[in-house]
Design goal:
binds phosphoenolpyruvate, 13% strand, binds magnesium ion, single chain, 25 helices, eight-stranded parallel beta barrel
Length: 585
């Protein structure tokens, strides 16, 4: 029976495919049959993963302190008991040795049968214990997947599948896409998570916050994911399919229309030239940036290089990857951001990071780079070596104080000196900029700007930190409001501070690539935008139809507005349709 589930669209477009459920999420299950010869090795992997999971629980227990320590310890003990249960462990071993299953598939089967037992219980408390099973098995799956190489994890073909899961890690997205996954339906997550950003890069539709998906979709169901509307149609009807085909035709026509704008200048109707740069994390983004006439790469996120693997990439590897981007842009400027691992991105980066209770406010971005010995130096050396191949700027994420910029500058000078002594060809001058994404940096920018050659506004984080709204928490989605008066005032201040100091100000957060906000950003005086390369043509089309001087005159009123409603009215005068926001009026 046709069923429509809703969530939030995190990556646009539509896809039609077979549902593939991952529960608990994050783990690729290899369902192929094991060869006799591989059984012993697979059993060893299983034992290893079980031992790792037990050790993790022990470490967790040892670290407990505070008022809830006893209760938490009870949970951990319950999980440890499951892991020590001979029936559970022997069952898994049998599935591998006799059932010829890969450890991941054996775990999934164990999970499914145990969950079914718990779900059949009348006692609501006991029924709720199924979660413990999920967590324990998830922990073992986690240990297992850390053991398997990306290569192994890619094995199972995912052609024509729509992944339905609670979350998906950024590092899993690419192997999944390469193996044929067409779209993502996530019960949790947010449109600003790194996975969502990656999914947009990969042009794969994604719907997040589809809370009911895992309980209403079965493996193999035909599903139509609509990333534009944030909808999932399970068992689409003939009419839905006809609608999908129509959409495919229209999307192709729209693409064609936009393609005419590839070589067109970006200029408002009153003649102001606007710089449209592209954000990139993969080489495909660089190709698309070129194809769509980007003026440069405004944000090259280097995390990607670190997430795809278990060890920290060497200077040489980093250099080659960055140089490809510089060469790929054929002389156009490339802004390379130093590592911004943190919060939603720490995964399998080969960096032994300590677990933190609140990683978004923890050791991420420049804080991490300055703390892990050699990390920043290796990266800066790699970046500096690319300056001999084209114009390169260096951008530092998560800056909150001037001392961090000073420390990076010192390191940069030392690296440049060493490289020159070692005979490397590097540019005489290179620009250093900071992401303005922490409110402290935005507010203190007047005293920081002299240390910087340029700044780039990271609205994704700036909004989350200004409003104290986790960008990855879908329950707070409607409070994450780019039009909050506090956000608008900060944006205006940053742009004005840069203007007064004669330093370029760009914006590279998602807001820059959303045509809904284009008139507003022009009104605030922004002239350099960096966005996903896919958004370039639409933003260009929008800018080329706007009169900047008219918009600029509205800016003072916008900044005086005290409510979202008033801001919405003013934007209405700019003929801007706003996304529906239900709170914070
Ligand atoms: C931002 O915070 O706006 C940004 C561009 O950085 P990221 O999304 O990688 O945190
Ligand atoms: Mg950021």
């Amino acid at each position: 029976m046709r069923l429509v589930l809703t969530g939030s669209g995190a990556s646009r477009g539509k896809a039609l495919g077979r549902a593939r459920l991952e529960q608990p999420s994050r783990f690729l299950v290899d369902e192929t049959r094991l060869d006799e010869a591989d059984i012993a090795a697979e059993l060893a992997r299983l034992e290893h993963a079980l031992a790792d999971a037990r050790a993790e629980l022990r470490t967790l227990r040892d670290k407990l302190s505070g008022p809830l320590a006893r209760e938490v310890a009870e949970f951990i003990d319950a999980h440890s008991l499951i892991l020590a249960d001979p029936e559970f462990v022997n069952g898994l071993r049998d599935l591998v040795s006799q059932g010829r299953m890969h450890a991941s598939a054996a775990l999934k089967l164990q999970r499914d049968s145990l969950v079914a037992v718990f779900e059949a219980m009348d006692d609501p408390y006991l029924r709720s214990r199924r979660e413990d099973i999920e967590h324990v098995i998830g922990r073992v799956q986690g240990a297992l997947s850390r053991e398997s190489s990306i290569e192994e994890r890619k094995l199972a073909s995912r052609v024509g599948e729509i992944l339905v899961s609670d979350t998906v890690a950024p590092s899993e997205l690419v192997p999944l896409a390469e193996h044929g996954v067409l779209g993502f339906v996530l019960t949790a997550g947010s449109t600003l998570s790194h996975s969502a950003i990656l999914s947009r890069s990969l042009r794969l539709p994604m719907v997040v916050g589809a809370h009911e998906a895992l309980s209403h979709v079965q493996d193999g169901d035909l599903v139509l994911v609509d990333g534009d509307r944030g909808e999932i149609i399970v068992h689409p009807t003939a009419q839905d399919l006809a609608g999908y085909r129509l959409w495919q035709r229209e999307a192709a026509q729209h693409d064609q229309r936009l393609e005419c704008l590839r070589t067109v200048e970006t200029r408002t109707i009153d003649g102001v030239a606007i710089n449209l740069h592209a954000n990139a994390e993969m080489t495909a983004d660089v190709a698309q940036a070129r194809a769509n006439g980007a003026a440069g790469i405004g944000l090259y996120r280097t995390e990607f290089l670190f997430l795809q693997r278990r060890e920290v990439p060497t200077e040489e590897e980093q250099f080659l990857a960055y140089r490809d981007v510089v060469l790929g842009m054929g002389g156009l400027p490339v802004t390379i951001r130093t590592l911004d691992l943190g919060a939603d991105k720490i995964d399998n980066a080969g960096l032994a990071l300590r677990e933190e209770p609140n990683p978004a406010l923890g050791v991420r971005g420049v804080r991490l780079s300055l703390r892990v010995p050699g990390l920043l130096r290796t990266q800066l050396r790699a970046i500096l070596r690319t300056t001999g191949y084209g114009p390169v700027r260096i951008l530092v994420p998560m800056v909150s104080c001037v001392e961090e910029i000073e420390a990076v500058r010192r390191e940069l000078r030392a690296c440049a000196k060493d490289l020159r002594t070692q005979g490397h060809e590097i540019a005489d001058h290179f620009e250093l900029g900071a992401m303005i994404e922490v409110p402290a940096a935005a507010i203190a920018l007047p005293s920081m700007i002299r240390m910087l050659d340029f700044v780039s506004i990271g609205t994704n984080d700036l909004i989350q930190y200004t409003l104290a709204v986790d960008r990855g928490n879908d329950a707070l989605g409607d409070l994450y409001d780019p039009l909050h008066p506090a956000v608008l005032r900060l944006l205006a201040q940053i742009i004005a501070t840069g203007g007064r100091a004669g330093k370029p100000v760009a914006m590279c957060g998602e807001m820059a690539g959303d045509t809904v906000f284009t008139p507003l950003l022009l009104a605030l005086g922004l002239t350099e935008f960096s966005m996903h390369p896919r958004a370039l043509l639409e933003v260009r089309e929008r800018i080329n139809a706007l009169d900047r001087s008219v918009l600029r005159r509205l800016a003072p009123k916008l900044l005086r507005a005290t409510s979202r409603k008033r801001i919405a009215d003013l934007l209405g005068q700019m003929r801007v349709e706003l996304p529906a926001v239900t709170t914070s009026a």
